[in-house]
Amino acid sequence: MKAFLLLTVLLSGVLAITAAPVEADEAAQAPLELQEENQVAEIEVGVAAPGVEGPEKSGEAALSVEGRFFACPTGWVRYKNSCYLYVSAGRSWSSAAAYCTSLGASLSSVHNVFDYSFLQDLTRRSGGSVAWMGGIYFQGWRWVDQSIFNYNFWSSQNSVRSYQCMYLNARAGWSNHNCNNGWPSICMTKSDTC
After folding, report:
1. Same domain for 176 and 95?
2. Each residue of 113-171: pLDDT tens digit?
3. What is the CATH number of the domain that holds 119?
4. Cα separation of 135 and 38, whole Å?
5. Which of 104, 148, 160, 187 makes the best surface tag, with the fewest CB within 10 Å?
6. Residues 86, 58: one domain?
7. Long-range contacts of 134-141 (CB under 8 A, 24+ apart)
8. What are 44-96's pLDDT values in tens digits?
């Protein structure tokens, strides 16, 4: 994917250089509004290609583009439009949920097999095999981030009378267990709060 992005940026640069004489004549005749649009487009290409240095742009134009992209805080991992943090410290489910909240996040929710595979991989890469997720049983299963509980991937399901908290198993699906177990957890925050 990086190679494709880099190739696209390089190809855009070559096309810009070969079209530069024509654009110079057109730029003199183009309204100021179009010239500003072209400058913003050039900046976006520079931002999208990390490690490729471009010419310096005015601070005002660079700031307007900066808000269009987001990066996760240090230690967090970006996936889709969210940032995730594997917390290796063992905590009870409620303590893990409170810790995530203190970071402006919540325990993770899952909405399809790709989300779950990502969380399993994050857990394995962090050296873990289980981690608390944001599923809790309260008059039915629900996610603490208030998203819809629309996907199930149970590897086993225990009685909800004693086991009301959901955990991820890095080798299988999820399961429910006693909420007082001291396990690692996965925090998640949406891109607008990263």
Report:
1. yes
2. 999 999 999 999 999 999 999 999 999 999 999 999 999 899 999 988 889 999 999 99
3. 3.10.100.10
4. 47
5. 148
6. no
7. 134/97, 134/106, 134/107, 134/108, 134/109, 134/166, 134/188, 135/109, 135/165, 135/166, 135/174, 135/176, 136/93, 136/164, 136/165, 136/166, 137/164, 137/165, 137/176, 138/164, 141/166
8. 333 333 443 433 433 433 433 444 567 899 999 999 989 999 999 999 999 99
Q: Do residue 85 and residue 33 come from a single domain?
A: no
Cα angle 186, 189, 190; round to 5? 140
* Strand, coil or helix: 101: helix
Q: In the 8-state DSSP scheme, what is residue 104?
A: T
Distance CA 176, CA 193 (A): 29
